[in-house]
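thread from #wetlab-drylab

HS: before we spend reagent money on co-crystallization trials with S-adenosylmethionine, can we at least see a predicted complex? here's what I'd submit
DV: go for it
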Amino acid sequence: MNNFLQTPKISVVAPQKLKRNSTTHFMYVVPVNYDEIRNNIQEFGLLTPLLVNLDYEIISGNLRHQIAIDLGLKEVPVVFIDAPEDMKAILSVSTNKFRVKSIVEIASEIRFYEEYYSVGRGTRTDLNPQVKVMKEEKDSAFNSIGQYKVNKVKSIEKKVVQLHGKNIEKINKEFSRVDRDEITLNELDKRLDRELLKLNNKSVIPKNYEFITEKVKIYNSSCGDLYHLEDESIQTIITSPPYFQMRNYGTGKKQLGLEKEVMDFINNLCDLFEDSKRVLKNDGSLFVNINDCVINGEYQSVPELFLIEMKRRRWKYVDQYLWLKTNAQFTPGNRSVRNFEPIFHFVKSDDYYFNDTWLTEFIDDNHSISMGTKKKYPKLVSGLDFRDNILTNASSNTLELRNKCKTDGNFLMEHSATYPLSLPLIFVLSTSKPGDKILDMFNGTASTGEVSVLTNRDYVGYELNPQFIMASKVRLEGYELGQVA
Ligand SMILES: C[S@@+](CC[C@H](N)C(=O)[O-])C[C@H]1O[C@@H](n2cnc3c(N)ncnc32)[C@H](O)[C@@H]1O
């Protein structure tokens, strides 16, 4: 580079005679210390000469030139250099190498070097000195940015282009979030990964999807009509319906949970449980995990209203468990943080099957799930922290499955309301025997299904969203499920 500047000679010219550099003008934004630079020039004059090509195009000094015009300076110092036409652009970028840059500017610079160098790529650098200079400039610029950052920025830009096309405004918008400290480069990269994967969902996930094997059957239809199931064929139902006004599961306006009035939600939900009475065995059990929410400053009493309506519909209410949460969501307002969710146990008759002798096999020295004499008469307690690694390590149920869906299924699993495996496990063990059939009417990602298979029970699930049934398949695929239909 330096051979253009062998005998620098300073001249003075009127700023109006100079032309802005077309390459760097769009690359670099106004620096944060603009006012400081302007005040300095106003007080002391323009001390550093601008670098100018023989045709008066500025190679380095666009900003100082603009300030000189704004301040009405009559003349500015310049050094003329005879830069070959095809080297002008790279020279103007390389003279900015040491300025402190934003990520938007860095991305712009990387783009410039990539595009510029790609013109000469493939040419032997020992035969073409100009390409050699370009390569050296690029390597030196990338070194000063840091190769890790260069790769990250390139990877992010590639993903934005995949998502939105080569839209420079969109690219700059994403990078400027990093400049504003709203997100780190790594977080942005990961977010774009998720968006790309989600885009893939459209082509990977069919409109309807069922997973049918000998031991596991997950139907893609509403649990309001359990027409696949014979009367009194199910031993235990364990389920967690969508909560009132909490989440959108992407299955349209009619999905449960989006009702405006709480009583509409309660009635719709209890209607869905009507057919389950038909399929449940006479000594069978139904467990429902349901939660409340605060609207207009007060709790909606969802669990209580649900309980009363289920009793009115002749379900026998025999027990209530509390899922004690160590990771409870913050509850806003002047009230305590609610760190529990109820689980109601309903039955059809007084002769329901209940057997907690499995607790005698279980080492529970801290009495986290049982009370009573250690080995002889332990009884299940009703307040349970299901995430506390009791019975299984189930604390990362959702995260692990999401990663598996990405690697095994190439789609983004968007379900985030899975329950820990120990929740269905305790109820399966206490109210059914191996070989029995377990049902989850709101299958989600088949946590209940996995527990059923693990404990040698058959499983049936109902789910409206095909994506979650695909996630269920990913979850269950490693198990022995008998013949696949
Ligand atoms: C709280 S999630 C269940 C999560 C599940 N326990 C798990 O661990 O993955 C409720 C699920 O019910 C599904 N759903 C909503 N309405 C339904 C209906 N009428 N029939 C069947 N599934 C329904 C939703 O799509 C959602 O996946």
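DV: Residues 185-204 form the longest helix (20 residues).
HS: ok that's useful, forwarding to the group
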